[in-house]
Amino acid sequence: MGGAVDPKNGHFIGNWGEFGKTDAFGSYRLPDPQRIATYALSSNRQRPFAGAFNAAIFNTFRRFRHQVLYVVPPFVIAYAAMNWAVERNHYLNSKPGRMLEGGHEE
Protein backbone atom coordinates (compact mmCIF):
# COMPACT_ATOMS: atom_id res chain seq x y z
CA MET A 1 0.00 0.00 0.00
CA GLY A 2 2.95 2.30 0.07
CA GLY A 3 4.77 3.78 -2.81
CA ALA A 4 6.13 7.06 -3.93
CA VAL A 5 3.91 10.07 -4.30
CA ASP A 6 2.77 10.46 -7.86
CA PRO A 7 2.14 14.16 -8.67
CA LYS A 8 -0.66 13.28 -11.07
CA ASN A 9 -2.48 10.55 -9.13
CA GLY A 10 -1.46 11.32 -5.56
CA HIS A 11 -0.76 8.71 -2.89
CA PHE A 12 -2.64 5.39 -2.99
CA ILE A 13 -4.56 4.85 0.26
CA GLY A 14 -6.81 1.96 -0.77
CA ASN A 15 -9.63 0.92 -3.09
CA TRP A 16 -12.96 2.71 -3.15
CA GLY A 17 -14.93 1.85 -0.03
CA GLU A 18 -11.84 0.38 1.58
CA PHE A 19 -9.83 3.45 2.47
CA GLY A 20 -7.50 2.95 5.34
CA LYS A 21 -6.87 -0.07 7.51
CA THR A 22 -9.03 -2.41 9.50
CA ASP A 23 -9.09 -2.23 13.26
CA ALA A 24 -9.19 -5.17 15.69
CA PHE A 25 -12.91 -5.73 15.03
CA GLY A 26 -12.57 -5.93 11.24
CA SER A 27 -14.23 -2.61 10.41
CA TYR A 28 -12.46 0.00 8.35
CA ARG A 29 -11.14 3.16 9.90
CA LEU A 30 -9.88 6.32 8.28
CA PRO A 31 -6.24 6.48 7.28
CA ASP A 32 -3.77 8.31 9.44
CA PRO A 33 -3.25 11.89 8.30
CA GLN A 34 -0.08 12.31 6.29
CA ARG A 35 1.68 15.22 4.68
CA ILE A 36 -0.39 17.88 6.44
CA ALA A 37 1.35 21.22 6.75
CA THR A 38 0.18 23.70 9.35
CA TYR A 39 1.22 27.31 9.58
CA ALA A 40 0.72 29.79 12.38
CA LEU A 41 1.23 33.48 12.89
CA SER A 42 2.04 35.00 16.23
CA SER A 43 -0.78 36.98 17.87
CA ASN A 44 1.30 40.11 18.13
CA ARG A 45 2.10 39.99 14.40
CA GLN A 46 -1.51 39.83 13.24
CA ARG A 47 -3.15 43.01 11.99
CA PRO A 48 -6.71 42.07 11.03
CA PHE A 49 -7.82 45.64 10.23
CA ALA A 50 -4.60 46.84 8.62
CA GLY A 51 -5.62 49.32 5.91
CA ALA A 52 -9.31 48.46 6.25
CA PHE A 53 -10.48 52.08 6.58
CA ASN A 54 -8.42 53.30 3.63
CA ALA A 55 -9.41 50.33 1.47
CA ALA A 56 -13.09 50.75 2.40
CA ILE A 57 -13.19 54.32 1.11
CA PHE A 58 -11.55 53.57 -2.23
CA ASN A 59 -13.34 50.24 -2.67
CA THR A 60 -16.71 51.90 -2.03
CA PHE A 61 -15.93 54.62 -4.57
CA ARG A 62 -14.78 52.05 -7.14
CA ARG A 63 -17.89 49.90 -6.66
CA PHE A 64 -20.17 52.94 -6.87
CA ARG A 65 -18.46 54.09 -10.06
CA HIS A 66 -18.86 50.67 -11.70
CA GLN A 67 -22.52 50.21 -10.70
CA VAL A 68 -23.92 53.71 -11.20
CA LEU A 69 -24.81 53.17 -14.87
CA TYR A 70 -26.76 50.02 -14.00
CA VAL A 71 -28.76 51.63 -11.18
CA VAL A 72 -29.37 55.28 -12.09
CA PRO A 73 -31.03 55.02 -15.56
CA PRO A 74 -33.94 52.81 -14.39
CA PHE A 75 -34.59 55.20 -11.49
CA VAL A 76 -34.47 58.23 -13.81
CA ILE A 77 -36.89 56.56 -16.23
CA ALA A 78 -39.23 55.55 -13.39
CA TYR A 79 -39.14 59.06 -11.91
CA ALA A 80 -39.87 60.64 -15.30
CA ALA A 81 -42.77 58.25 -15.92
CA MET A 82 -44.27 58.90 -12.48
CA ASN A 83 -43.84 62.67 -12.86
CA TRP A 84 -45.55 62.57 -16.26
CA ALA A 85 -48.39 60.42 -14.89
CA VAL A 86 -48.99 62.72 -11.90
CA GLU A 87 -48.99 65.85 -14.07
CA ARG A 88 -51.30 64.20 -16.60
CA ASN A 89 -53.64 63.11 -13.80
CA HIS A 90 -53.78 66.65 -12.40
CA TYR A 91 -54.48 68.03 -15.87
CA LEU A 92 -57.24 65.50 -16.63
CA ASN A 93 -58.91 66.24 -13.30
CA SER A 94 -58.77 70.00 -13.85
CA LYS A 95 -61.46 72.08 -15.52
CA PRO A 96 -59.60 72.60 -18.83
CA GLY A 97 -58.61 68.92 -18.98
CA ARG A 98 -62.18 67.73 -18.47
CA MET A 99 -63.44 70.09 -21.15
CA LEU A 100 -60.77 69.02 -23.66
CA GLU A 101 -60.70 65.26 -23.03
CA GLY A 102 -64.14 64.57 -21.61
CA GLY A 103 -66.20 66.74 -23.87
CA HIS A 104 -69.53 68.03 -22.59
CA GLU A 105 -70.57 65.01 -20.58
CA GLU A 106 -72.48 65.64 -17.39
TrEMBL record:
One GO term (biological process): mitochondrial electron transport, ubiquinol to cytochrome c
Primary localization: mitochondrion
Membrane topology value: Single-pass membrane protein
InterPro entries xref list: Cyt_bc1_su8, Cyt_bc1_su8_sf
Keyword Ligase: no
TM annotation in the entry: 68-86
Database matches in Gene3D superfamilies: Cytochrome b-c1 complex subunit 8
Pfam family, one: UcrQ
SUPFAM superfamilies (UniProt xref): Ubiquinone-binding protein QP-C of cytochrome bc1 complex (Ubiquinol-cytochrome c reductase) (SSF81508)
Gene Ontology CC terms: mitochondrial inner membrane; respiratory chain complex III
Location within or outside the cell: Mitochondrion inner membrane
Key words, A-Z: Electron transport, Membrane, Mitochondrion, Mitochondrion inner membrane, Respiratory chain, Transmembrane, Transmembrane helix, Transport
Quaternary structure and partners: Component of the ubiquinol-cytochrome c oxidoreductase (cytochrome b-c1 complex, complex III, CIII), a multisubunit enzyme composed of 3 respiratory subunits cytochrome b, cytochrome c1 and Rieske protein, 2 core protein subunits, and additional low-molecular weight protein subunits. The complex exists as an obligatory dimer and forms supercomplexes (SCs) in the inner mitochondrial membrane with cytochrome c oxidase (complex IV, CIV).
Physiological role: Component of the ubiquinol-cytochrome c oxidoreductase, a multisubunit transmembrane complex that is part of the mitochondrial electron transport chain which drives oxidative phosphorylation. The complex plays an important role in the uptake of multiple carbon sources present in different host niches.
Family as reported in the entry's similarity comment: Belongs to the UQCRQ/QCR8 family.
This protein's name: Cytochrome b-c1 complex subunit 8
Naturally occurring in which organism (per UniProt): Penicillium canariense
